[in-house]
UniProtKB/TrEMBL annotation:
Pfam families: EamA. PANTHER family: 4-AMINO-4-DEOXY-L-ARABINOSE-PHOSPHOUNDECAPRENOL FLIPPASE SUBUNIT ARNF-RELATED, SMR FAMILY PROTON-DEPENDENT DRUG EFFLUX TRANSPORTER SUGE. The chain crosses the membrane at residues 30-51, 58-80, 178-195, 207-227, 239-261, 267-289. It is found in: Cell membrane. The lineage of its organism: Bacteria, Pseudomonadati, Pseudomonadota, Betaproteobacteria, Burkholderiales. One of its GO terms (biological process) is lipid A biosynthetic process. This is Drug/metabolite transporter (DMT)-like permease. Keywords: Cell inner membrane, Cell membrane, Lipid A biosynthesis, Lipid biosynthesis, Lipid metabolism, Lipopolysaccharide biosynthesis, Membrane, Transmembrane, Transmembrane helix. GO terms for molecular function: transmembrane transporter activity. Residues 6-131, 178-311 form the EamA domain. It is a multi-pass membrane protein. GO terms for cellular component: plasma membrane.
Length: 314
């Protein structure tokens, strides 16, 4: 893959991790998602008059992707509402490249070389390894780890520590729901990746294609939210309008850059390389969300970095 394309996809990955962190950190994940989509739409409306219009042949793909994005934002906010970013993000972003790689050959006629398949395997293995590393222990594991440190201790304190260990064990109902929503969203991500990979090529104007997509998506999300939670949306927008601008710019630039890359490189390869967003997400989580990164998580991140390097030279 061309070095310039690699650099652009990595920038898109960083921006994607950034706006996802904004959604996770928001008090209301769904309303934050609506603000982010609306911010992207406002920026798009300002830029569209200066861009060439997409070819009419791409219109069905814009409409199909808009519908998929409705589900995407809903599932995204649901996953973050029920679970940590370190749980939901790897599942969403890690499963999608596998689905894209499987579907891109029959749908797009793309054939990846063995090195690119190996890179996809490295990246996906690293992302799933990161999920396993961030998983809380089962009750048996937690209790087992608590016993050695309590030898010779007061029995009451030992029982209390075991009770605390079991209370923090996984999986909780909330974590299971987050996992379900994240996996469903991976299907949505794979679907819009394939649809937009074709649509951007047919449009002849990937930047304008992306902006029309965000405008239509925001219109739908705003209409839905205003019909159901009008007062909450207005109050939330007044308090968090900066999130709309910052997150909107991040999501628009992230997806637009990735779409452009799909016009000059294999869709599955771009989709997999973009999943290095987990590297940036880990850094953001450690620095701003105060998440701890142990050796297992570091090893998983190493797999992702190795896959990215392998993709770079494929």
């Amino acid at each position: 893959m061309n070095p310039t394309v690699v650099a652009i996809v990595l920038l898109a990955a960083f921006l994607h991790a950034g706006w996802n962190a904004l959604v996770k950190a928001g008090k209301d994940a769904f309303l934050t998602s609506v603000l982010v989509a609306s911010g992207a739409a406002l920026i798009s409306l300002a830029a569209l008059p200066f861009l060439p219009a997409p070819a009419p042949a791409s219109l069905p793909y814009v409409l199909a992707s808009t519908l998929i994005h409705f589900f995407y934002y809903g599932l995204l906010s649901a996953a973050y509402r029920h679970g940590d970013m370190s749980l939901a993000y790897p599942l969403m972003r890690g499963s999608a490249p596998l689905l894209v790689a499987v579907a891109s050959r029959p749908l797009l006629g793309e054939v990846l070389n063995p090195q690119q398949y190996l890179a996809i395997a490295y990246i996906c293995s690293g992302i799933f390894g990161l999920y396993l590393a961030t998983r809380r222990p089962t009750p048996a594991e937690a209790a087992g780890s608590a016993v050695p440190s309590t030898l010779g201790a007061d029995p009451n304190r030992t029982r209390a520590r075991l009770k605390d260990a079991q209370a923090t064990a996984a999986p909780t109902g909330s974590a299971r729901r987050a996992t379900l929503f994240a996996l469903l969203n991976a299907v949505a991500i794979a679907a819009y990746t394939l649809v937009d990979g074709i649509g951007a090529r047919k449009s002849g104007a990937p930047a304008a294609y992306t902006m029309y997509l965000f405008v239509l998506t925001a219109i739908g999300l705003l209409a839905w939210t205003l019909a159901r939670r009008p007062a909450a949306l207005r109050a939330y927008a007044r308090q968090h309008w900066r999130v709309a601008l910052l997150g909107g710019l991040g999501t628009l630039a992230s997806y637009g850059l990735a779409l452009w890359a799909m016009t000059v490189a294999p869709v599955a390869a771009v989709a997999a390389l973009r999943e290095t967003a987990i590297l940036f997400a880990a850094a953001i989580a450690a620095l701003f969300l105060r998440e701890k990164i142990g050796w297992r998580r570091a090893a998983a991140i190493g797999f992702i970095a190795g896959g990215a390097a392998l993709m770079r030279f494929a």
